[in-house]
Amino acid sequence: MRTRINRQVLIRRIDVALTFWLLLMCFGSNLAAQLKSVGKTWPVGELVPIGKIDHTQFDALLRKHVDQDGQVNYSDWKDSAVDRTALQNYLADLSRANTQLPASQETKLAYWINAYNAVTIEGILEVYPTTSIRDHTGTFGYNIWKDLKLIVGEDSINLNDIEHEVLRKMAEPRIHFAIVCASIGCPRLLNQAYVADRIDEQLTLNSRDFFSRKQNLTFDTRGRQLQLSAIMKWFATDFGSDREAQIQKVASWFPDEAKDFVTSSSFSISYLDYDWNLNERK
What is the pLDDT of residues 6-31, one digit of tens each? Predict the structure, then answer.
């Protein structure tokens, strides 16, 4: 009896293992099809300083396919072979950057913000139609933030590392109102490329726009409550070492009424729900 039971158990386990293996093969095939790098590998002798990268092509694409609220016409962009190629050509240009050469803070900020946004757009266009980037950032399987990499010089880098290992380490918190993860809850995607000689103006512009929207900032004078985007919870330490310093930092970008509110008396802070739906122009 024990031998028979063990044999049945063994058969079931083999069936389960075979089923899992078949699923893994199908899943792995699909995963392999999606894992990719964007950009181009250039000969070392053709690499250039970051400041030599031209963002004009990306600027034209953003002005064409992104509206004033940062909503993207992914459908038209994907359907346009010319504009799909133009984005890929721009990504190839980004790959020419030699990040080991000296560059100003402004130049590096413009380059890496544009790189983050361009790679994200390319990642969404690859899987479009879709309703949310979160459908492509799971623990198992293809993850746009981790698996989609931009070739830069002799290396490659994913979106997570652009954000956390490059941009956040530049000690410019306004990057959180400039890099866009293709979601409504994100800051608006500025419909122009960031450029070194206007980067301060552009970052301030988008920071003020961010806090002008009720999805990112509301306040209740009677209940003495300030509600902020979850971005301010996730990255609070980038804005200061404590709550007072953080609020003082971001208040300069608040609308006037909100500025008065946070300077007039005490208040509690809570965080708004984050909208992960696609920032798609309808």
Answer: 666 555 665 555 554 444 444 443 44
* Dist CA 280 CA 183 (whole Å): 8
Residues 102 and 175: their CA atoms lie apart, in Å, by 21
pLDDT tens digits for 140-167? 888 999 999 999 999 999 999 999 999 9
The full 3-state SS of the chain, as one line of letters, equals CHHHHHHHHHHHHHHHHHHHHHHHHHHHHHHHHHCEEECCCCCHHHCECHHHCCCHHHHHHHHHHECCCCCECHHHHHHCHHHHHHHHHHHHHHCCECCCCCCCHHHHHHHHHHHHHHHHHHHHHHHCCCCEHHHHECCCCCEHHHHEEEEECCEEEEHHHHHHHHHHHHCCHHHHHCCCCCECCCCCCCCCCCCHHHHHHHHHHHHHHHHCCCCCEEEECCCCEEEECCHHHHCHHHCCCCHHHHHHHHHCCCCHHHHHHHHHCCCEEEECCCCCEECECC
Interatomic CA distance for residues 45 and 157, integer angstroms:
20
